Amino acid sequence: MDYYLVFLLILPFVWASIRVLTFKLASQTLPPGPKPFPIVGNILQLSNLPHQALAKLSKTYGPLMTLKLGSITTIVISSPNLAKEALQKNDQAFSSRTIPDMAHVFDHHKFSIGWLPTNSKWKNLRKACATQIFATQRLDATQALRQTKVQELIDHVDQSCRSGAPIDIGRLVFTTVLNSISNTCFSMDLAQYDSNLSQEFRDLVCGVADEAGRPNIADYFPALRLIDPQGVRKRTSIYFTKLFGIFDGIFNQRVQLRASSEGSKASNDVLDSLLSLIEEDNSEISLLDIKHLLLDLFLAVLLLTLPFVWASIRVLTFTLASQILPPGPHPFPIIGNILKLGKLPHQALAKLYKTYGPLMTLKLGRISTIVISSPNSANEALQKNDQAFSSRTIPNVLHVFNHHKVSMAWIPTNSKWKNVRKASATQIFATKSLDTRQALRQTKVQ
What we know:
Strand content: 5-15%
Shape: extended
GO molecular function: heme binding; iron ion binding; monooxygenase activity; oxidoreductase activity, acting on paired donors, with incorporation or reduction of molecular oxygen
Structural class: mainly alpha
Number of domains: 4
CATH architecture of the largest domain: Orthogonal Bundle
Number of helices: 18
Oligomer: single chain
Organism: Castanea mollissima (Chinese chestnut)
Distance between the termini: 90 Å
Strand order of the largest sheet: 1-2
CATH class of the largest domain: Mainly Alpha
């Protein structure tokens, strides 16, 4: 019992000595850097603009410096020459990377070509990609397929324009890219333009992107990974489960087809090539490796597509808007024309009216606003075209309890609005009802 007590008393001192010795050894071998705070390290010094904070720190500590992000020691390179030395001349030594906690879901980091170290499995997966997916011959063979999918997109847009149906450009482009990949890999469309499946798949991909890009405290303090304080791993597990469920259904169907008498009719697509690779003698690639590889492929292509889709929509929207909207001052990025309103918006609008006329467009943040400064224009909009201008931008506060969906002041002029208006006119503000309560009002005044 005495030995046990002595051991418990000595243990903290041993631990502290090891930490001090480790810190001293590390400080002798690591590049210089700002002194870390206890527990959080240098995280607070990165602020909301890490790239600017790192550029500022590099002026003090040089192009090679050490930061302590939580309990993770991080080396920051801020020089092109040093980056070339590390990533080109010593690429083998620096090829591995810190694996985020979300990549541990379903042991994805043990199968993913994006997270594996440069071992034999990584080389086999890389070889499979080079020979079965990105080979010039295969890309050339699928060129007609990609052209077909683009033509289907054009035909759908043309049909929608002829029928007057609204078009969700982002959804259509995402569906086209998704079907191009799925046809290359599986010889089938995963979504249709008139179905919700592409939106569901897009939500899954965006969900994974959000979790990958969200700062996770468990990445800076690995001891917290078991409790997953921000729920990143839990949400990623849900997304991966749904994506793997889609892949499993396709894999099982293809394996059954290859085993049946109709196996010869199987398409010579990426999945067939990879399955044939698995069936080779002494193959080091398993079906689980292929499933994670295709997950990486789909996520990479679709995530790279999203920024271009967003940019295309913004450019197209701006181009169309500039053609049909009244003139107005050029908006600043993000904030638009908010700063031009100043502390006295009515005076600022009157001043802008002299430059851009009685009908002008302002961009308040992301909201396009039409400003009318002429009685004649106001009469044209609010009296002669009251139906078209009856709806309004709903402030965020009115979404509480979905008030904007039931309030007569905020719902559009649909059947519900007409019924509420009729109830008000016949039951509340009718002349007979007001006359009946006249004596009551007089009594309250008295």
